[in-house]
Amino acid sequence: MKSETGFDPDLFNRFPTQGDRPEGEEEGLKRVWCAPKGWEYLTVVNNNYVGIYYLGTAFLFFLLAGVLGLLMRVQLAAPLMNVLPQATYNQVFTMHGTVMMFLFAVPMVEAAGVLLLPQMLAARDLPFPRLSAYAFWAYAVGGLAFFGSLFIGLAPDGGWFMYPPLTSKAYSPGINTDFWLLGIGFIEISAIAGAVEIIVGVLRTRAPGMSLDKMPIFAWAMLVFAVMIVIAFPSVILATLLLEIERAFNWPFFDATRGGDPVLWQHLFWFFGHPEVYIIFLPAAGMMSMIIPTVARAELVGYRLIVLAMIATGFISFGVWAHHMFATGLPPMTAGFFSAASMAVSLPAGIQVFSWIATFAVGKPRFNTPGLFAMGSVVIFVTGGLTGVMVALVPFDWQAHDTYFIVAHLHYVLIGGMVFPLFAAMYYWIPMVSRRPLSERWGRWVFGLMFGGMNIAFMPMHLSGLMGMPRRIYTYLPGSGWDTLNLISTLGAFMLAAGVLLFLIDMARNFRLAPEEGEAGNVFGAGTLEWLPTGLYSTRSIPVVKSREPLWDDPNISEDVERGRYFLPRTATGRRETIVTSPLLAEPQYVQIMPGPSVWPFAAALFTAGFFLALTVQAYLFALVSGVLGILAVLCWLADTDLPVPENDVDIGAGIRVPTYVTGPQSHGWWAMMILIVVMGMIFAMALFSLAFLWGNQPSFWTAPPPMLEALPIALGYLAVIAAAWGTRELHRIGKSWAILPALAGAIVAPALLWLDIGAWSAVTAPDAGGQGAAVFALFSLQGMVAAIAVLMALYLGWRQLRRVVTARRNNTLDLTCLFIAYTGAQGLVGTLFARSIGA
Amino acid sequence: MKTWAILLGGLLVWTTHFFGLYAIAEIAPSRWITVLLTVPCLGVDAFLLLRGRRLEVRDTFAGWRRSIALGGVALSLVAVCWQALPPWFAGTE
Would residue A543 count as lying in a domain? Predict the structure, then answer.
């Protein structure tokens, strides 16, 4: 394979360099990457801290949701128990599911990525550390406020998937449902921010030489995971937005009596909801694929097959959403191929399981705590997978739908596929961040209690479900045959909780955070880069990677890295920096200057959470103020980024020089903007789908749209917006000082075009007149939001131009703003034409 | 882009076929339209398989890329056939 960037791979042979490095280099790194003090813990952005904050908070939510689960089990331990009143029980089961899925599972694996990936890829940090900090604080502040709704009786109570019409204003008049809809909003923002960080981090900040075929399997898993978030989460973002708008403004998206359709919610929700299972499972599977080779003391069997399986899972998991909807009366043809795809998705999962079993078989496995949890996970996950294939069969699903059989199935999948791998991972990686590993003896007890408790709790639920016990009932009559099974489940749940409690005690006894140095280290003898000696700056120097397990294949690598004999053994510009490499072969491209600690991500997160929470309690003025302050905080956070540095290129080791700044598709900022555009595009595509869906299912409510010919000037206007964005880039390239003017004009014209379109449609329908009006005006709302962001970005660009920080060479802000303005024009064009073509 | 297209080609064919089936089922359920969609998809898969077999394997990365590409196409072939069967049996004329 020829070089991807023109970099000569023979230059890698200059490493490790010989002799000692000049004095003061390591001190320089320590000074730049110094530890926080006092209130600086709120402004810290490096992954060593943010990752730990993130993990700790996600685990706290696991414990809180677990307590809710125990409460439910106490209520169901015997017939006609009265521990929780019915209304409270509804809130408890809704919060249990919501918190586990949205506040524990996704953030937990994202947190593991933030903590582990830079070390595993030997990067100094992920490329957007302030974005990581923002994602964490938005999640933590918002999540705790959301959970607090339970204590004032305002927690959501419509189940974790919030089906309308139960959650419509007519049947849920309080603000409980709004807490869910808006509370999930900022968690979605946080998840997408984390996904952007992870995709760009994995593809652009790997150690030199770490081509895709040498990438740790966990990094592969996190890459697929993050891409899936980018594709799946927009669907639930749109769904929550539409339902909240329906509740607040009476736009009937889901009201079947007025041209809406409640099944639309199910499509939108499950297009996110089923991939969500794999979004949770894949990173956990990645952890398993890292842990098992070390435990088995053998190379992972079938690395290529596992990578293929992960990618295939990412694809096929988007073709199974309707298997949650078999009971809604899907056409037989649709039900048929969704059933087929649901069975097919078990193949890639099976490949991974067989690879793990084969690795255990060919190696010399150690039955230590990570190993026990890994093996236990395989057993539990396979059991859940088998019942998954059962419910993929339409006739069986009709029988088991909404029974405790499904509760058993999903807990086997999620506990086997995520919770057990997570505990294996905690036992495995804690020595990387703590001065002491956790106790092996206690660990075996933790495993025994959790494995036994899990099976005792959930195995009987298969039977109670098959005997007809519906999920979500708060009590049942004696003599239904469910009494003994429920009592056993409750005992099992407490046994499982005892295991978790023991784990907490072990953590209190042994976990001592060592972010700077002094961690227990590679106690299991693993072969991947996260076990290199590290400080707050990650590794002292960034090694050249020549195999998948460099620590096994090169016994001197740790010493050479620690002595600074590889890339970037010092701070080349006196700032925080990392090497950005090419996406396929990881050839060094440039040095990224990284932003340091800042209070603004924290402030922006605080105001984001404030905005959503104020909307929930209908404090609109407070929400407006909070929203404006949030935007200002983001602008302040950006103000000291993308600034010129004196050095145009620097020596990154062994005489190899790379630039300190690049623009266009080479730059990491460009990648992040493209991912953001994909997110916006997905939200918009799902809105277009909603319009078409309502037309297909409620044609009797449809009125003829305005004539297509009338849209011609608007369409031409949007084309002009795209041309203006493109023109600005070209004019800047040839050095025109007024180059930004076309972009500014384009950004201002876009809202005016939207106004014209709204005028034309207002003559035909209104947003509260029916499903068609609601869906069309939802498209306008999205376009309005995108156009407003484009205006804001254009003004920000103008401000930077006035500060003279946009130069001919350093023009990323201009590049990215133009990209977004062009997207605004393209989205407006498609929306205008599509809305008029549906039902014409 | 070329490498990503090689790596993901088979799975992109599967995606096209799957969402095509969904559109057919929602708009105009018909087993013959299903066949019209499935045969070209299988053809593209077969083409990708032949092209994939001829990919260079000069170094470890190229070999890895080839095996992932071929695996994806093989999986796509199986999955496209598999998911076309129920519409064939359940579809209307």
Answer: no
Q: Could you tell me the CA-to-CA distances from A594 to A51, A468, A673, A703 in Å, in that order?
A: 17, 58, 17, 54
Domains of chain A: total = 2
Domain boundaries, chain B: 2-90
Question: Residue A311 sits in a domain of what CATH number?
Answer: 1.20.210.10
- Whether B93 shows a pLDDT value over 70: the answer reads no
Given a contact cutoff of 8 angstroms between Cβ atoms, the answer to whether A586 and A211 are in contact is yes
Give the mean pLDDT of A617-629: 93
Name residues whose C-beta falls within 8 Å of residue A67's C-beta, 6 or more positions apart in sequence: none
Distance CA A407, CA A465 (A): 8
Residue A565 falls inside a structural domain? no
Could you tell me the residue range of the domain that residue A368 belongs to? 44-510
> Which residue out of B24, B61, B73, B81 would a mutagenesis test of the A interface target, given it has the greatest number of A Cβ atoms within 10 Å?
B61
**pLDDT at position B92:** 58
Residues of A with CB under 8 A from a CB of B: 1, 211-213, 304-305, 307-308, 311-312, 315-316, 318-319, 331-337, 339-341, 343-344, 347-348, 584-585, 696
The residue type found at A680 is: M
Q: Is A34 a domain residue?
A: no
CATH number for A695: 1.20.120.80
Q: What does the pLDDT look like over A803-829, one tens digit per residue? A: 888 887 788 999 999 999 999 999 999
Query: Cβ contacts (< 8 Å) between A343 and chain B: which residues?
Result: 82
Per residue in B77-86, pLDDT (tens digit) is 999 998 888 8
pLDDT band at A341 (very low <50, low <70, confident <90, very high): confident
Residues 6+ apart with CB under 8 A from A678: A230, A231
> What interface predicted TM-score (ipTM) does this complex get?
0.94
* CA–CA separation, A606 and A524 (whole Å): 40
